[in-house]
Amino acid sequence: MFSIKVNELKQYLLKQKNTILIAVLIIFYSVGTVGTQLPAHRAFFLGLSDFNLLLTFVIALLAFEKLNLKEIFFLVICYLATMSAEWIGTSTGLLFGSYFYGQNLGETVVGVPLVIGLNWWILIIAASSITDYFKLKPLVSALVGALLMTLLDVIMEPVAIKSDFWHWENEQIPMYNYVCWFLLTFILLVIKEKVSVSKANKVHSALFLIITLFFIIQLLF
Q: How many Å is the maximal CA-CA distance in the chain?
């Protein structure tokens, strides 16, 4: 009897997986939103940013209906490509512009936080999931996804500065940064269309909206 109930519980949890994962995201980002708005606790919550990204990464992985080798392959490509781009950017300014990372994104390697490549992957699959709902042609989907990512970056940049995520020379965000964001994202989205088999995903789509709302609130308040 006990084993039957356990199996029933497992089946129920599997059926409700997307709802549970979205609920966890909403709870964690809501707590983070409130925590960073409280002056006495802001530094503490900002210091947990790398943990929050790792949690988001795990949830994004769990959200796949089937995590196959193609998805893992794209994850590796995306991580290595974006970490390399960030290293070139922080070291030379040839990509994005003249900037450096602050203290609130955790451990770094050659000046780039280890979680930043995961952040790129999270945002790319989330933006891609949004565009997949519209069943666009691959290149059009990549263009729209890159535009969504760039618009999100416009919102993120001022928040990143005041949150000590990263800083620009004289705290002036160059237009070149957005150009690089768009082009790099577009290239990665094109690659994703070629190697990935995942399509619209409720958790990934909700994740993009939750992250966008989080940064809008941070920007306004």
A: 67
Cβ proximity of 164 and 46 under 8 Å:
yes
Please count the structural domains in the chain: 1
Kindly state the helix (H) or strand (E) to which residue 96 belongs, with its residue range. Answer: none
> pLDDT tens digit string along 93-139?
999 999 999 999 999 999 999 999 999 999 999 999 999 999 899 99
* Domain hosting residue 12, numbered range: 2-220
pTM: 0.94
The C-alpha atoms of residue 211 and residue 218 are separated, in whole angstroms, by 11
d(CA 208, CA 206): 5
The one-character DSSP state at 94 is: S
Q: Is the dihedral of CA 143, 144, 150, 154 positive or negative?
A: positive
